[in-house]
Amino acid sequence: MAHSHSRLKRLASDRASERRRLAVARARLACKALSDMGVTVRVIGSLATGRFGPDSDIDFLVEHCPRHLKYAIEGLVEDCLGGLPFDVVYLDEVPAHRLERLTREAVDAGHLR
């Protein structure tokens, strides 16, 4: 029974690692596509802080975007993420009391591990 339990634990860990690798790859893809359109975006939340888990979503912080693209961003992110859940936060809509924490934890997608 102990052997079976450790095997299940290892399988769950492998799945979590694979989901994280997929999330990193797709977050990079989304950030690159947005950057190519003139949008400045970084990753925040659990993927940025190393706490990404089986039920986590991918959080993006849009720091700057051309006004005409603001409502196209989420569709593009959705296309890039291929079904992974996500959230987009716009810096200009963040309450002042949350601004410092969000900008401190924000990571360029290329630096995700």
UniProtKB/TrEMBL annotation:
Residues 27-96 form the Polymerase nucleotidyl transferase domain. Keywords: Transferase. Signal peptide: none annotated. SUPFAM superfamilies: Nucleotidyltransferase. It comes from the Bacteria. The keyword Transferase applies. CDD domains: NT_KNTase_like. InterPro entries: NT_sf (IPR043519), Polymerase_NTP_transf_dom (IPR002934). The keyword Acyltransferase does not apply. One of its GO terms (molecular function) is nucleotidyltransferase activity. This is Nucleotidyltransferase domain-containing protein. It comes from Mesorhizobium neociceri.
